[in-house]
Amino acid sequence: MKIDPKSRADLSAQIAKAIRDAIISGEMxxxxxxxxxxxLADQFEVSRPTVREALKRLAAQNLIRTQRGATGGAFVRRxxxxxxxxxxxxxxxxxxxxxxxxxxxACEARYALERACAPLSAQRRTPDQLATMRAEIHRQxxxxxxxxxxxxxxxxxxxxxxxxxxxxxxxxxLAGAVEAMQPLMNMITFxxxxxxxxxxxxxxxxxxxxxGDAGAADAxxxxxxxxxxxxxxxxxxxRDAARHGTDAT
Length: 249
Fold this sequence. Notes:
- This protein is mainly α.
- The chain is built from ten helices and two strands; from the N terminus they run H-H-H-E-E-H-H-H-H-H-H-H.
- The protein has a two-stranded antiparallel ribbon with strand order 1-2.
């Protein structure tokens, strides 16, 4: 592992990248103990605080874990999909908000990914995942439910559908789509949408998943996509009209 001391890049970032690359390439394996801070400082010809900062970067990426005691130190961590979900969701949320991704683009991506999961979920979902979908549908129909709680339930319903595909790679990829994009879409459309329409479509999806009918699940998701797009377009048009009206005065 080497760094370029003449590079303008931060030295701690270079060290973190060098160690990260060694982990990804398999040069360093899971549970392998990293050299001590002093050994790393000698190897990279930097100060121990610089090494310490590099290790903090790696820990923040869930690539290493630290252990105290005589046998302690920093070790290569086995990164699980569940551990990466939160970071993926945060990154997706920031990308959407900072880059001003338009509603139609977010909607297209989110449902295209979920429709890829539906056939698998129709074949592989567990009784618990189906029960979660049914429970969320029941929850959505409760009188007096706030918009915020309804939106949370909406996310939980689709999360169960995605996880029903029993494919950790898809679940990881869709964590950002469902839990970052869905709240964005809910925020834009919640004032105009019909809860009864959403519940009816969710019920059709759950019925199809329970019956193992991939075609029916996809058809219901396609209708939900079209409905959501229409609501979004109407909401954006109304917002533009109000803005122009305000500007005109």
